[in-house]
Amino acid sequence: PRKIIIDTDPGQDDAAAIMLALGSPELDILGITTVAGNVPLARTSCNARIILEFCSRTDVKVYAGADRPIARPLVTAEHVHGKTGLDGPELHEPQMPLEARHAVDFIIETLRREPAGTVTLCTLGPLTNIATALEKAPDIAGRVRELVMMGGGFFEGGNITPAAEFNIYVDPEAAAAVFKSGIPIVMMPLDVTHKVLTLKSRVASLREIGSRPAKALVEMLDFFERFDVEKYGSDGGPLHDPTVIAYLLKPELFSGRDCNVEIETTSPLTVGMTVVDWWQVTGRKHNARVMKDVDADGFFALLAERVGRL
Ligand code: BDR
Ligand code: CA
Q1: Atom of ligand 1 at shortest distance to CA of 125?
Q2: Distance between CA atoms of 225 and 200, rounded to whole angstroms?
Q3: Which of 44, 97, 111, 233 lies at a 20 to 30 A Cα distance from 199?
Q4: What is the C-alpha to C-alpha distance for residues 23 and 305, in angstroms, rounded to an integer?
Q5: DSSP per residue over 191-228, as a string?
Q6: Where does the sequence pass through the membrane (predicted)?
Q7: Comparing C-alpha atoms, which of 173, 146, 179, 131 is closest to residue 286?
């Protein structure tokens, strides 16, 4: 199986991503690292463990990471995810412990221990942990097989400001460091995730499963879509983060192209913007494979099949 580390700020859609990974034998989850984002770090670290307990997978370890962005105060998104970050199902106090090791050290040690080019980083939140690890141990950049991220937007614009997507906006300095690192990057922007809408017909097969994890997930999604349905008037909300995991399982569901991507870190108007050279007009070096389109029905079929195995 392909070795992955999931770096996350759960988040209902992060939960969907984690469940998709847990239900997929092609993936070996070496650890889950948490970061401050949708809600503060203490809460994302709690939520990651609650998700694992919903799935009876307490064998997967959780490492807490950065509690704030590199150079800015933390911006959170309770307006989207609710007070807990995981609103929807009834939430319990997690029983499984948080690991003592810091997420950044876990990431560095794992990349140095495993053979070079075998570990994939899946990032579902702000890139603070990854950028901090790169700063502390620049040698790890050359050891990462691939970094697949949910982040950014180009034709679609932003979701936290007109220009910026939330994960990049929260820690643009971290994102800039990651895009400069030379790590092979695959980017799942809003251009993809806004097509992955939780339409009733698509969620129906998840609803039919009826297991504890599936029920919890459906309750999360019912809560999560409220914000977007009200705001954008769409039938269903976008399911951002599981596209990262789906890409590892079935890359043929997605299409995009290699581009140069730069991150705006100074302009107050557009800070956190991902400037994607989709039309190749700058001649700047490609540093990411940027996805734009997705087979959304194929994605939901995969999600239901894998959650059904939990
Ligand atoms: C991203 O921001 C968070 O609110 C979601 O979990 C997702 O990672 C979407 O912009
Ligand atoms: Ca997230």
Answers
A1: 8
A2: 11
A3: 44
A4: 8
A5: HHHTT-B--HHHHHHHHHH-SHHHHHHHHHHHHHHHHH
A6: none
A7: 179
